[in-house]
Amino acid sequence: VHSVVVKDSAEGSLAIAQEIADLIREKQAKGENCVLGLATGSSPVKVYDELVRMHKNEGLSFANVITFNLDEYYPMDKEAAQSYWFFMHDHLFNHVDIKPENVNIPDGTLPVEEIRAYGLRYEDKIEAAGGLDFQLLGIGRTGHIGFNEPGSAVNSRTRLITLDHITRVDAAKDFGGIDNVPRKAVTMGVGTILKAKRIVLMAWGQGKSPIVKETVEGEISSSVPATFLQKHENTTFVLDPSASAELK
Ligand code: F6R
């Protein structure tokens, strides 16, 4: 894993958006689709703001872009204010020219007995699109990527998981209290993420500095699933000074 420390999250977000835009344009020039794995939460907000700006002011088109989001709470209606479906439309998809049929977000509305087969279909769809060209990641304080909480295997695939208590505490403000935070989520697996050709993980703020240290310098282990990124040969961590503060 290669770490880059940027001046602040604004500067880091612009650099990440620029990399994504360059990739979209490079693929466009070759007549190819660009397959993006996308994250929600607070970390990527400025990346999406910048991509929207580039669409509006610089003619960046998403006509050749296919997206796969990492995760969704379970159960969760699409239209709920806390849904990742709503987040993605609100921050990105409603403001760019992506084809609605090219947007894929794990479905939080399925009967529980259908999720296994759904997860396999999600994986097949990524493969059929040509695999993830680029995967954007945040990191949770538990060391989750997507919602792969501690205990997730390196070869895990899209599936239903139980959210860690710390993750639910961190989500409580968005739900008006921890009791309203769903206990489960549907998430791409660690194995799904590691197949991406390129991975960029963002971490902003002091709250992330202990887990960033463990992820970059710790032993590779399912107790900190983000450590599996150490096995991926084309991953960059983009960190602000606070998130990188504990690194050697
Ligand atoms: C979101 C996701 C999560 C978040 C992580 C950090 O789709 O997969 O892994 O990236 O929980 O969340 P924030 O950015 O809100 O600190």
- What number of structural domains do the residues give? 1
From N to C, what is the helix and strand string? EHEHEEHEHEEHEHEHE
Q: Termini, distance in Å?
A: 14 Å
What's the CATH class label? Alpha Beta
Poorly predicted ranges: none
Q: What's the oligomerization state?
A: single chain
Strand order of the largest sheet: 1-10-9-6-2-3-5
User: What is the molecular shape?
Assistant: globular
| E-strand count | 10
Please describe the biggest sheet, giving its number of strands, its sense, and whether it closes into a barrel.
Answer: 7 strands, parallel
Protein name: Glucosamine-6-phosphate deaminase
Organism: Fulvitalea axinellae
GO molecular function, one term: glucosamine-6-phosphate deaminase activity
Domain Glucosamine/galactosamine-6-phosphate isomerase: 10-236
